[in-house]
Amino acid sequence: MNSTIEATVEGAKKIIHADATKDFFVSMITRDISLRDCIFDLLDNAIDGARRNPAATGPIFSGKKIEIYFDSKSFQIKDNCGGLTLSDAIDYAFHFGRKPQSPTDVKGGIGLYGIGMKRAIFKIGLNCDVISHASDASFKVILDVRAWQAKESWDFEYESIDVDDVKGVTIDISNLNKGVALSFEDPGFKNELIKDIARDYAFFIQQGLEIKVNNSTVPSYQYELIKSANVEPAVLSYADDGVDVRILVGLVDQLPDDIPEELKPSAVDRYGWFVICNDRVVLAADKTERTVWGDDDFKVWHPQYNGFSGFVFFKSDDQSKLPWTTTKRELDASSPLYRRAIVKMKELTDQFTKYTALRKQDLDAAKSAEIEQKTVIDVSKLTVPQVMKMPTITSNFVKPTTVSISYQRAKEDVEAIKRHLGYPGMTNKDIGIATFQFFLEVELGK
Amino acid sequence: MNTTTPSFERLNYLLRTNKHVERKLVFDLLTVMYHKLSIPNLWYLGFGSMWFSDFKLAHRQLNIKEMVSIEHEDYADRATFNSPLASIKVEPGDSSTVLPKILDERSSRSVVAWLDYDGILKDTVVSDLNILLNKVTVNSVVIFTINASYGSYRAKISDPSKRSRNQTAVGLIEEYLGTAAIGAQYQPQLMGNGAYKDNVKEADFPEFLAEALQTYIKHYVTNGARMHEGMEITYTPLYKLHHIDGADMITVGGVLTTLESNELWKAELQKINILSDGQSLPAYRKLDLIPVTVKEKITLDSCLPDETGEANYINNVKAKGIKLHDDELIKYLKFYQHFPVFVETPI
What are the chain A neighbours of B152 within 8 Å (beta carbons)? Predict the structure, then answer.
């Protein structure tokens, strides 16, 4: 991949040409985005189509369906979300970059005309048909990437096709790129894709959207926080430069008694900060400086905080104001809007982390108070501003009445106890507690 | 039953009907493929225990000479005594410890590795699997057998309304194999109070586990991006078997190939109806046949093969006096060519 740099002499001027080649362009735009995020770009475009053609009754995406199919030979995404109008296709949708006079995106949308669809096609394969049935026309754009790269013009050709009553877009890609074919053949890729779609598109699925991957329906995913007699999540709302911001902080799970030896990702994938832009989850379960942790000397994530969940929602009719990058996988750390939100996120995080330290003074009392009359509440329903409430722990020093017991034992014996108790996944700590308790009951009658 | 006693002290491995059928099915495919491919210096790796049944098949049907059996240190001497062939080397030690060295010493040679565990899937088993997948060369077959009883994985707790995710059977498998191995339809269900419940029935659990293991292996090999002579190594699944001789056990496995040779393996698999789903992938097959007597076998076999259909075959065998249930007759029809009968002989 390279730019073509040639020199010519034109009249009195000496010119060095630096036109970008198509090879270079294709290579650059596909290099830094993952296959999964390219598929997400195509989903975003379909969702924007649905937003332009909302359901007449019920939730906005009711009746809208997006189906994804792939195997080692081909990829298809098909929707019934209204289609791409011919005028948009001719003038804007296939253009590289946004033209100054292009129409504003759909209000509250998430797709970006100018990059997503082309990037996804180039990433996935060498041959593509884009078929659209919209209110104004039905057409097909046929793209042979190699042939397109070989010609000078950057334009694509289209042909008219028979009208279909179901209005939507179908993108068929074949002649898959090498690594892509291997990924599509991997059933683990499909399982992870479904899991990630469930998590990142949860708020659309909640509003009636149906998404299928190789005939498996993406399940709904609940984002919830705990509410109890002594626990209330914090809710903060404000407007900032044309963007509505809502920040929630609370407990999604019980706080741990102590630090576990090790944890698998699935055990902690509900903890941390979640950043959502126009209902699209951009960052999930973040524990890094991309949100607050370790940012500018703020405390880093600690397993003591397992159970913490924070949500920051950015909503705007003008999606260019949202603080995300073109991959929609990162936030723009230099965005003043985001920097101002980070300040508030840190304040609320601080309140929470102070509590996690305080509760150690009387763990039993803290645990009982945290779960008293415990229920869970969907984060979409937390809209009325309120302050965080956590149990009150007395700050007087209390002489500890417990001690720690720690010892080594043969792995074989520990495994035998797990089998005997019928709980293969039991932690070593819980085995210690169970065997200690057994002795207390049997030998001491307690 | 004392579950800490090694299984070979509780069971005579030679007398497990369904295990026998499974072994024959596994080796039938390997016999055809390895004769076609003419792989030089093929060797065999397994847990031979005291009976070495699979080792004998490997030698007879695949003409494999060099074989290694890993055995617990305490029982290695007894295993060596019982080894039926001079070319079997009993390697004492824990599999996770000795596997790397055994494989490194033979790294350029294809292997048939069948690790037949007594117990359930756990971290050490996954670790052994990873070692094999990282080290074996192309045209090596990797097969694992583990316990697939639902009750062995689902935690027995006093209050099911407080079941945590890793206390569900699927949640525990997810801890060992990772989330990518678990299909969306099997994910544990989160209840309103924060507790979880399994989304797979007890009867379906072995099939779920077999599928999860196959997905894990495929995903692991794809992500590993190993190369062989400039070509990517890929994994082609071959077996998804469930046999019951007492406990539910599953056997899953496949072959590591390059894209060049995997079509050959797929084509051969597709020819074997019992193993294949008709689309170059292994079908889930349950082997739970009851043992039959010599007299019953002779009578049943005298009516086979029967191309006229199940109903006709059942009528024929019943007319000859067979008193087995229809379900068992249909199973026998499917697997009769691999079915053993065990007799006592004076020695």
Answer: 424
Token pair in block for residue B189: 């269900």
**Residue written as token pair 């900060």:** A273
3-state helix, strand, coil in chain A (%, to 5): 35, 25, 40
Residue B121 zone, left/alpha/beta (φ > 0; ψ -120 to 50; rest): beta
Note the pTM of the prediction, 2 decimals: 0.84
| ipTM rounded to 2 decimals | 0.79
Give the SS3 label for residue A225: strand
Distance (Å, whole) CA A327 – CA A334: 16
> How would you classify residue A348: left for phi > 0, otherwise alpha for psi between -120 and 50, otherwise beta?
alpha
At B172 the three-state DSSP class reads helix
B133 within 8 A of B142, measured Cβ to Cβ: yes
Q: For chains A and B, what is the number of CB pairs under 8 angstroms? A: 91
Measured from the Cβ of residue B323, the count of other Cβ atoms closer than 10 Å reads 7
Interface test with A, best of B117, B175, B227, B235 (most A CBs within 10 A): B175
Tell me which chain B residue has its CA closest to the CA of residue A197. Answer: B184
For residue B207, what are its two tokens? 């099939």
Q: Please report the DSSP string for B19-41 in residue order.
A: HHHHHHHHHHHHHHHHHHHT-TT
The two structure tokens encoding residue A238? 């404000």
Compute the Cα dihedral for A294, A299, A304, A310 and give only its sign: negative
Partner-chain contact A374 B193, CB within 8 Å:
yes
> Does any CB of chain B come closer than 8 Å to the CB of residue A424?
yes
Give contacts of B182 with chain A, Cβ < 8 Å: 191
Cβ A170 vs Cβ A78: under 8 Å? yes
Residue in A195, A222, A421 closest to B179 by CB: A195
Residue of A182, A183, A191 for testing the chain B interface, max B β-carbons within 10 Å: A191
- Token pair, residue A276, equals 């959502």
Other beta carbons within 10 Å of B90: 20
Q: State the Cα–Cα distance between residues B219 and B235, nearest whole angstrom.
A: 9
Please list the pLDDT of chain A residue by residue as tens digits (446 residues).
Answer: 444 555 555 556 777 766 667 777 777 778 888 999 999 999 999 998 999 888 888 899 999 999 999 999 999 999 999 998 887 777 766 766 655 555 556 677 776 656 888 889 999 999 999 999 998 899 999 999 999 888 888 888 889 999 999 999 999 999 999 889 999 999 999 999 999 999 999 999 999 999 999 999 999 888 999 998 899 999 999 999 999 999 999 998 888 776 666 677 777 888 999 999 999 999 999 999 999 999 888 999 998 899 999 999 999 998 889 998 877 778 988 899 999 999 999 999 999 998 888 888 888 888 888 888 788 899 999 999 999 999 887 655 555 667 778 888 988 899 889 888 888 888 888 899 999 999 988 888 88
Residues in CB range of A338: below 8 A, 6 or more apart: A323, A331, A332
Question: Residue A28 is inside which H or E element, if any?
Answer: helix A22-31
Identify the sign of the CA torsion A410, A415, A418, A424. positive
Alpha helix locations (H) across chain B? 17-37, 53-62, 76-82, 95-104, 123-135, 150-153, 169-177, 205-224, 259-271, 294-301, 310-319, 326-335
Long-range pairs for A321-326 at CB < 8 Å and ≥24 separation?
A321/A241, A321/A242, A321/A243, A322/A243, A322/A277, A322/A278, A323/A277, A324/A277, A324/A282, A326/A112, A326/A115
Q: How far apart are CA A228 and CA A389, in angstroms?
A: 10
Beta carbons of B244 and B214 less than 8 angstroms apart: no
Give strand pairing partners of B248: B244
Residue A195 contacts B where some CB pair is shorter than 8 Å: yes
Nearest to A323 by CA among A313, A311, A333: A333
The secondary structure of A259-287 as a DSSP string is: --S---HHHHTTSEEEEEETTEEEEEEE-
